[in-house]
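subagent[fold] <- orchestrator: predict structure for attached chain, return C-alpha coordinates only, no commentary.
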Amino acid sequence: MIDLYTWSTPNGRKVSILLEELGMPYQAHGVDITKDEQFAPDFLRISPNNKIPAIVDRDHGLALMESMAIMVHLAEKGGRFLPQAGEARLRVLEWLAWQVGGFGPMLGQAHHFLKFNPGKAPYAEERFGTEVKRLYRVLDTRLAGHAFVAGEYSIADMAIWPWASRFEWQGIDLNDYPNVRRWYLEIAGRPAVQRGYDVPKVTGPIPLPA
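subagent[fold] -> orchestrator:
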Protein backbone atom coordinates (compact mmCIF):
# COMPACT_ATOMS: atom_id res chain seq x y z
CA MET A 1 0.00 0.00 0.00
CA ILE A 2 1.18 3.49 -0.89
CA ASP A 3 0.29 6.63 1.05
CA LEU A 4 0.36 9.51 -1.44
CA TYR A 5 0.67 13.05 -0.12
CA THR A 6 -0.33 15.37 -2.92
CA TRP A 7 -2.29 18.33 -4.25
CA SER A 8 -3.97 19.24 -7.54
CA THR A 9 -0.84 20.44 -9.31
CA PRO A 10 1.14 19.08 -12.26
CA ASN A 11 3.78 17.62 -9.96
CA GLY A 12 1.16 15.96 -7.79
CA ARG A 13 -0.76 14.55 -10.74
CA LYS A 14 2.34 12.83 -12.13
CA VAL A 15 2.29 10.32 -9.30
CA SER A 16 -1.46 9.78 -9.00
CA ILE A 17 -1.59 9.11 -12.76
CA LEU A 18 1.23 6.57 -12.45
CA LEU A 19 -0.46 4.84 -9.51
CA GLU A 20 -3.69 4.60 -11.48
CA GLU A 21 -1.88 3.28 -14.55
CA LEU A 22 -0.19 0.64 -12.41
CA GLY A 23 -3.42 -0.30 -10.64
CA MET A 24 -1.44 -0.10 -7.42
CA PRO A 25 -3.38 0.28 -4.16
CA TYR A 26 -2.90 3.69 -2.60
CA GLN A 27 -4.47 6.18 -0.26
CA ALA A 28 -4.36 9.84 -1.21
CA HIS A 29 -3.84 12.50 1.45
CA GLY A 30 -4.48 16.08 0.36
CA VAL A 31 -1.79 18.58 1.35
CA ASP A 32 -3.36 21.97 0.69
CA ILE A 33 -0.45 24.12 -0.39
CA THR A 34 -2.72 27.19 -0.53
CA LYS A 35 -3.00 26.87 3.26
CA ASP A 36 0.71 26.11 3.85
CA GLU A 37 -0.05 22.56 4.96
CA GLN A 38 3.24 21.50 3.34
CA PHE A 39 5.02 23.11 6.29
CA ALA A 40 3.26 20.97 8.91
CA PRO A 41 5.75 19.02 11.07
CA ASP A 42 4.13 15.68 10.26
CA PHE A 43 4.53 16.29 6.54
CA LEU A 44 8.09 17.55 6.90
CA ARG A 45 9.06 14.21 8.43
CA ILE A 46 8.09 12.64 5.09
CA SER A 47 9.17 15.44 2.77
CA PRO A 48 11.98 17.53 4.32
CA ASN A 49 11.88 19.92 1.35
CA ASN A 50 8.22 20.75 2.17
CA LYS A 51 7.09 19.98 -1.38
CA ILE A 52 4.47 17.66 -2.80
CA PRO A 53 4.28 14.94 -3.94
CA ALA A 54 5.67 12.54 -1.38
CA ILE A 55 4.89 8.94 -0.60
CA VAL A 56 5.21 6.38 2.12
CA ASP A 57 5.57 2.85 0.77
CA ARG A 58 4.19 0.77 3.61
CA ASP A 59 5.52 -2.44 2.06
CA HIS A 60 9.10 -1.21 2.39
CA GLY A 61 8.75 1.25 5.28
CA LEU A 62 10.09 3.85 2.87
CA ALA A 63 9.30 7.57 2.72
CA LEU A 64 10.23 9.35 -0.52
CA MET A 65 10.06 12.92 -1.74
CA GLU A 66 10.81 14.34 -5.22
CA SER A 67 8.65 13.18 -8.10
CA MET A 68 11.44 11.65 -10.19
CA ALA A 69 12.60 9.39 -7.38
CA ILE A 70 9.00 8.46 -6.57
CA MET A 71 8.14 7.62 -10.17
CA VAL A 72 11.24 5.48 -10.70
CA HIS A 73 10.54 3.60 -7.48
CA LEU A 74 6.89 2.96 -8.31
CA ALA A 75 7.60 1.93 -11.90
CA GLU A 76 10.24 -0.53 -10.71
CA LYS A 77 7.95 -1.80 -7.98
CA GLY A 78 5.12 -2.30 -10.45
CA GLY A 79 7.33 -3.62 -13.23
CA ARG A 80 5.89 -1.31 -15.90
CA PHE A 81 6.55 1.97 -17.71
CA LEU A 82 10.34 1.92 -17.15
CA PRO A 83 12.48 -0.59 -19.03
CA GLN A 84 14.90 -2.54 -16.88
CA ALA A 85 18.08 -1.89 -18.86
CA GLY A 86 19.69 -0.63 -22.02
CA GLU A 87 19.01 2.35 -24.25
CA ALA A 88 15.23 2.07 -23.74
CA ARG A 89 15.67 2.72 -20.02
CA LEU A 90 18.07 5.58 -20.64
CA ARG A 91 15.64 7.26 -23.05
CA VAL A 92 12.90 7.23 -20.43
CA LEU A 93 15.25 8.64 -17.80
CA GLU A 94 16.56 11.21 -20.31
CA TRP A 95 13.09 12.65 -20.96
CA LEU A 96 12.08 12.34 -17.33
CA ALA A 97 15.13 14.43 -16.45
CA TRP A 98 14.20 16.91 -19.21
CA GLN A 99 10.85 17.43 -17.54
CA VAL A 100 12.24 17.72 -14.02
CA GLY A 101 15.11 20.01 -15.01
CA GLY A 102 13.43 22.23 -17.59
CA PHE A 103 9.86 21.73 -18.71
CA GLY A 104 8.38 21.79 -15.21
CA PRO A 105 10.45 24.59 -13.65
CA MET A 106 10.19 26.90 -16.66
CA LEU A 107 6.46 26.37 -17.07
CA GLY A 108 6.02 26.92 -13.35
CA GLN A 109 7.72 30.29 -13.66
CA ALA A 110 5.51 31.11 -16.63
CA HIS A 111 2.46 30.37 -14.49
CA HIS A 112 3.75 32.76 -11.83
CA PHE A 113 4.40 35.67 -14.17
CA LEU A 114 1.96 35.16 -17.04
CA LYS A 115 -1.05 33.75 -15.19
CA PHE A 116 -0.94 35.14 -11.67
CA ASN A 117 1.08 38.36 -11.95
CA PRO A 118 0.66 39.72 -15.48
CA GLY A 119 2.04 43.17 -16.14
CA LYS A 120 4.27 43.27 -13.07
CA ALA A 121 7.53 42.04 -14.60
CA PRO A 122 7.70 42.46 -18.41
CA TYR A 123 11.25 41.11 -18.58
CA ALA A 124 10.28 37.94 -16.72
CA GLU A 125 7.16 37.50 -18.83
CA GLU A 126 9.21 37.74 -22.02
CA ARG A 127 11.99 35.49 -20.71
CA PHE A 128 9.80 32.67 -19.47
CA GLY A 129 7.22 33.03 -22.24
CA THR A 130 9.97 32.63 -24.82
CA GLU A 131 11.50 29.66 -23.03
CA VAL A 132 8.13 27.92 -22.75
CA LYS A 133 7.68 28.16 -26.52
CA ARG A 134 11.18 26.81 -27.07
CA LEU A 135 10.47 23.81 -24.84
CA TYR A 136 7.22 23.07 -26.63
CA ARG A 137 9.13 23.14 -29.93
CA VAL A 138 11.62 20.63 -28.51
CA LEU A 139 8.75 18.38 -27.45
CA ASP A 140 6.95 18.78 -30.77
CA THR A 141 10.10 17.88 -32.70
CA ARG A 142 10.64 14.78 -30.58
CA LEU A 143 7.06 13.65 -31.02
CA ALA A 144 7.25 14.09 -34.80
CA GLY A 145 9.10 10.80 -34.96
CA HIS A 146 7.84 9.03 -31.85
CA ALA A 147 4.39 8.08 -30.61
CA PHE A 148 5.57 8.88 -27.08
CA VAL A 149 8.65 10.74 -25.91
CA ALA A 150 10.75 7.64 -25.22
CA GLY A 151 9.12 5.42 -27.84
CA GLU A 152 6.71 3.48 -25.67
CA TYR A 153 4.31 5.09 -23.18
CA SER A 154 6.29 5.57 -19.98
CA ILE A 155 6.76 7.53 -16.80
CA ALA A 156 8.38 10.25 -18.92
CA ASP A 157 5.05 10.93 -20.65
CA MET A 158 3.23 10.82 -17.33
CA ALA A 159 5.63 13.42 -15.93
CA ILE A 160 5.42 15.79 -18.90
CA TRP A 161 1.70 15.57 -19.65
CA PRO A 162 0.31 17.23 -16.47
CA TRP A 163 2.44 20.29 -17.14
CA ALA A 164 1.18 20.44 -20.72
CA SER A 165 -2.37 20.25 -19.36
CA ARG A 166 -1.96 23.85 -18.19
CA PHE A 167 -1.18 25.08 -21.69
CA GLU A 168 -3.71 27.90 -21.30
CA TRP A 169 -1.85 29.27 -18.27
CA GLN A 170 1.31 29.35 -20.37
CA GLY A 171 -0.21 31.24 -23.31
CA ILE A 172 0.25 28.16 -25.50
CA ASP A 173 -2.05 27.15 -28.35
CA LEU A 174 -1.54 23.42 -28.85
CA ASN A 175 -2.66 23.81 -32.46
CA ASP A 176 0.71 25.46 -33.06
CA TYR A 177 2.38 22.21 -31.99
CA PRO A 178 0.50 19.47 -33.87
CA ASN A 179 2.61 16.58 -32.64
CA VAL A 180 2.20 17.69 -29.03
CA ARG A 181 -1.54 18.10 -29.62
CA ARG A 182 -1.86 14.55 -30.95
CA TRP A 183 0.15 13.14 -28.03
CA TYR A 184 -1.69 15.26 -25.48
CA LEU A 185 -5.14 14.16 -26.63
CA GLU A 186 -4.16 10.50 -26.77
CA ILE A 187 -2.94 10.57 -23.18
CA ALA A 188 -5.92 12.67 -22.03
CA GLY A 189 -8.19 9.89 -23.30
CA ARG A 190 -6.66 7.22 -21.08
CA PRO A 191 -9.03 6.25 -18.23
CA ALA A 192 -6.18 5.97 -15.71
CA VAL A 193 -5.01 9.50 -16.60
CA GLN A 194 -8.53 10.82 -16.14
CA ARG A 195 -8.77 9.18 -12.72
CA GLY A 196 -5.33 10.36 -11.65
CA TYR A 197 -6.08 13.90 -12.76
CA ASP A 198 -8.87 14.10 -10.19
CA VAL A 199 -6.61 13.24 -7.22
CA PRO A 200 -6.82 14.41 -4.47
CA LYS A 201 -9.97 16.27 -5.55
CA VAL A 202 -11.93 17.11 -8.67
CA THR A 203 -11.06 20.59 -9.92
CA GLY A 204 -12.79 20.44 -13.29
CA PRO A 205 -12.43 18.64 -16.60
CA ILE A 206 -9.11 18.08 -18.30
CA PRO A 207 -8.44 21.12 -20.52
CA LEU A 208 -8.72 20.36 -24.21
CA PRO A 209 -7.41 22.42 -27.14
CA ALA A 210 -9.89 24.14 -29.40
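orchestrator: received. Logging for downstream: Residues 86-190 form a domain with the Glutathione S-transferase Yfyf (Class Pi); Chain A, domain 2 fold (CATH 1.20.1050.10). The chain has a mean pLDDT of 97.
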